[in-house]
Specification:
Largest sheet: 14 strands, antiparallel, barrel
Helix content: under 10%
Radius of gyration: 25 Å
Shape: elongated
Distance between the termini: 31 Å
Number of strands: 27
Structural class: mainly beta
Strand content: over 45%
Number of helices: 4
Strand order of the largest sheet: 1-4-5-9-10-12-13-17-18-21-22-23-24-27
């Protein structure tokens, strides 16, 4: 077999340009911020990297504050904050046929902030959600034969966050606050298999990552400013839900719920990644890549005890699992410089949309380049543009009891961009 030589600029491991955006710093379905890549494990020799990505999504729409069917919809201005994601990895090769890697990333998150002027903001506060996760994955692997790798390890994952929910139900505002008192951590198994043909730069790697179960101590509080309730109690402003007498709750049809300290649990989803690459042309120094991913979002929900009983549904849940695919073409222009173009599609989690991340499918297009400063040190940079599919967010709790649900908002198709930088060093 003739050897396909794509030397110096295109190692077998990965071209390493826009992978920093598609696996570290781009939006995906559900709460996903990264693709949880294990590709540093396949870098040649001993290797270390640092990466950074800045992501700025923009999603807008209309609420239905005037009521179902009312033309008095209010504009929802850009309700997703920009955010930063950091990544790092160290890989060592004890021998030619073994490898160890420690990978840091920030796989899941929420940065949502609704501005004043819509149904999701009132005099008591605004709707805002912040969720942060951080993970360290330790992987070890070895060759079974000349072409086959087996690898596996454990991910340590940490999570924290807070949620505030402000809404106006037919002119009756509520304000809910979920304060998480501490951080949660969990251990997650990771197992994979890879097949390589170095002569043609072919590698196919399949990685399974289990679900992570988080348990946190939190405190819930709910304020209501209901006109009927105010008339019964003789008040004119917000009332703490716990201060409403039991007989009054029965009279106006409110659940007998006590807000306060609660134990909150949720699971980050299991996933399967496929990373494929192969040399396409020795003459033109081309490398083709395909990255596919499945994430089990249908088993995810965040359901604090108090608010779930009052509204009859979790704060966040998803209807469908998510599938995504990215295809890329990389070219080495000279021994120092290589570039890549990458296109992607993420299926999303289907309607109804979550108010925490109100978009469905996502299309992406990215460009990037990698420059080898010397035989040890390289710099990669890239930019990615994203198109978000909008849709409808609704609640199972209707105002009109003849209806099965209440439409909360209709979100437009949105856009966003990501910028990334990665430093790589072979030692």
């Amino acid at each position: 077999m003739k050897k396909l030589v794509l030397n110096t600029g295109l190692p077998l491991a990965t071209i390493g340009t826009l992978s920093l955006l598609t696996t570290i710093g781009a939006h995906a379905a559900g709460l996903e911020y990264t693709k949880q890549s294990i590709l540093p494990l396949f870098e040649e020799g001993n290797y270390a990297e640092l990466s950074y990505a800045y992501v700025d999504p923009k999603i807008e729409g209309l609420d239905v504050a005037g009521g179902i069917g009312s033309p008095q919809n209010n504009e929802i201005k850009d309700m997703m904050d920009d955010f930063n994601i950091f990544g790092a990895a160290v890989k060592v090769a004890p021998s030619q046929n073994t490898a160890l890697a420690l990978i840091y990333d920030e796989p899941f998150g929420v940065d949502t902030l609704y501005q004043s002027g819509s149904e999701f903001s009132n005099d008591m506060g605004t709707t805002e959600a912040r969720v942060d996760t951080r993970s360290l994955t330790l992987l070890g692997g070895g060759k079974v034969n000349n072409n086959l790798w087996l690898y596996g390890g454990m991910e340590y994952q940490e999570a924290e966050g807070s949620v505030q929910l402000a809404q106006n139900f037919e002119g009756d505002p509520i304000y809910y606050n979920l304060k998480i008192n501490d951080k949660s951590d969990t251990m997650i198994p990771v197992i994979g298999i890879a097949y390589e043909v170095p002569e043609i730069m072919l590698r196919a790697a399949v990685t399974w990552r289990g679900e992570g179960e988080h348990r946190l101590k939190a405190h819930e509080n709910l304020l209501v400013n209901n006109t009927i309730l105010n008339g019964v109690l003789g008040t004119t402003g917000p009332t703490n839900y716990n201060d409403i007498p039991t007989d009054i709750k029965d009279l106006i049809g409110l659940p007998q719920v006590e807000f306060g300290d609660t134990n909150l649990s949720f699971k980050t989803p299991q996933s399967v990644n496929l990373d494929f690459q192969t040399g396409l042309s020795e003459k033109y120094q081309l490398l083709g890549m395909v990255n596919a991913r499945w994430v089990e979002w249908t088993k995810f929900n965040i359901a604090p005890t108090g608010i779930t009983q009052v509204v009859g549904e979790p704060l966040a849940e998803y209807k469908d699992d998510a599938y995504s695919i990215e295809v890329a073409l990389a070219k080495q222009f000279n021994p120092q410089l290589s570039g890549e173009i990458r296109a992607g599609y993420d299926s999303g989690t289907a309607e109804p949309l979550s108010l925490l991340g109100p978009y469905d499918s996502i299309k992406t297009l990215a460009l990037g380049g990698k420059y080898k400063v010397n035989n040890r040190f390289d710099i990669s940079a890239g930019a990615q543009y994203m198109w978000f599919e909008g849709g409808t967010a609704y609640s199972k709790l209707p105002i009109d009891k003849s209806l099965s649900e209440r439409t909360l908002a209709k979100f437009d198709d949105g856009t966003g961009y990501a910028l990334g930088l990665k430093l790589g060093y072979h030692f």
